[in-house]
Amino acid sequence: MTTPGLPLRQLLMSLGEPLVELQAAPQGLDVPVRDVAILDPEDPPTAAPGELVLAIGARGRAALPALRAAGRANAAAVAVKLDGPGQADALREAATDAGVALLSVRRETRWEHLDSLARAIIAGPDAPDTAGTPEHNAGDLFSLAQTVAVLTNGIVSVEDTSSRVLAYSRSSDSDEVDDLRRLSILGWQGPEPYLSKLREWGIFQHLRTSDAPIAVEPHPELGLRRRLAIGIRAGAQPLGTIWVQEGAQPLAPLAEQALIGAARVAAAQLVRRRRELSADVRLTQTLLTGLLEGSTGPQSLATHLGLDLRRPATVLAYSAHTTEALHRSDVTGLISVHTAARHRTALLAPIDSRVYVLLPELPPGLPMTTVRDWASEVVEAAWDHLGVPLRAAIGSTVDGLAQVPDSRAQADRILDAMGRGGVELDVAALIDVQAEVLVSEMLALLQERTGLRDPRLTALTAYDLRHGTRLAESVLAWLDALGEVRVAADALHIHPNTLRYRVRRAEQLTGIDLTQPQQRLLAMLQLRLPAED
């Protein structure tokens, strides 16, 4: 059933001037906004009826296809970032021709924050929290912020323990908003210079340890107006903060009392949301792990997250050079953050000593180089920021979620080969290491099933261990050099005559005939196995 949606007028009132500005509304301000869609610059321009389309990465005339597609689909509005007034004129004309509203977004605004905020406002206070992040469906907190604003005669924001803005009240006059409030909303987090001052004044320490409100006196030199703050706490556990900034009028006499009640209401809401989110995350992990392992079909995960079963998908697999490194939460968190920045619906599942990333709903024809670049960013960031060397394997791009286990299996094959050595790449797809993967798997088979080995070659490696000789190594170097004695001798840093002697000696001791192609092939494989004591 189609949802009625929220009038564009109400969405604009809730978002407020700090984030967006209306440039054109050819259908008026009562058009319903039912959903938010992010249009990636690599995706073909598409839209659905009633959507607010966030055209990320498209500025100036580059946004024209998004406007036209939104108009054809009866979308509600398109939001873009502008580089100058000339762009606004051209886009306003295009939006009017397309019959779709045009919103300009402040350059400092982060797209993911605008997306989260708009979804929360559209969902309203009674919507269930199923989106998977605290910012989504936070309409109850917005309603609370607006109520506190009325009771205190101030301008309200609700933040988490990392000073990220979860919700805020509307302000009718942007001149009332000070720099801290404006920059916090635009960046979704308080700017560090201001936060440092609040730490220096002991404000955060008070908010973490006390249930009482605290006043922050005005500092005009810093662009700070007077404000009240109170910590949101569940027992001794801090959950966040409510801030009330004084506007053009003084704060109400009972502002502190209103803050105490609001903090208790907010605590109940945040505790409930954490519990719901925790249960949702556990269910998502269970369904994702089951899909990757082939024990659960794709329908359950698709239904739970609203994924399209038939769109292309790929699995990335990461492993560390040391087996314990990937158990560190900071490594897993780094993989999660970097991947989510590149693909909105990416899902992550640590399984044993590896971390798997499912990239569902990929755009058709997405170049392999794009996915490779995403994986390379993760590997480089893990080394630069954490000092952890990672390997990344890119599984095959499959036609839908039902084939995800095949993509995961291919990624595992590549990582297995990288772990056994012989692959110098840190990021690889099967096309990069096809031969290495096949040879690695044949060696694994020989390692496991000793009956498939040639006992004469086994005896040769045993002879080297007993006598401290290097006959097997010399034979393998000669075979790898295709019989070029000088090339093999140079690789071993020995005289060519020494190499010739070692090869003849190996043939005499074992009875193998290296003039036979089959025996040479088996020797090239088996002599790559690690020597057994």
UniProtKB/TrEMBL annotation:
Annotated PucR C-terminal helix-turn-helix domain residues: 471-529
Pfam families from the UniProt entry: GGDEF_2, HTH_30
Span of domain CdaR GGDEF-like: 300-416
Alphabetical list of InterPro entries matching this protein: CdaR-like_regulators, CdaR_GGDEF, PucR_C-HTH_dom, PucR_C-HTH_sf
Superkingdom to which the source organism belongs: Bacteria
Family: Belongs to the CdaR family.
Name the UniProt record assigns to this protein: PucR family transcriptional regulator
Annotated source species: Streptomyces kaniharaensis
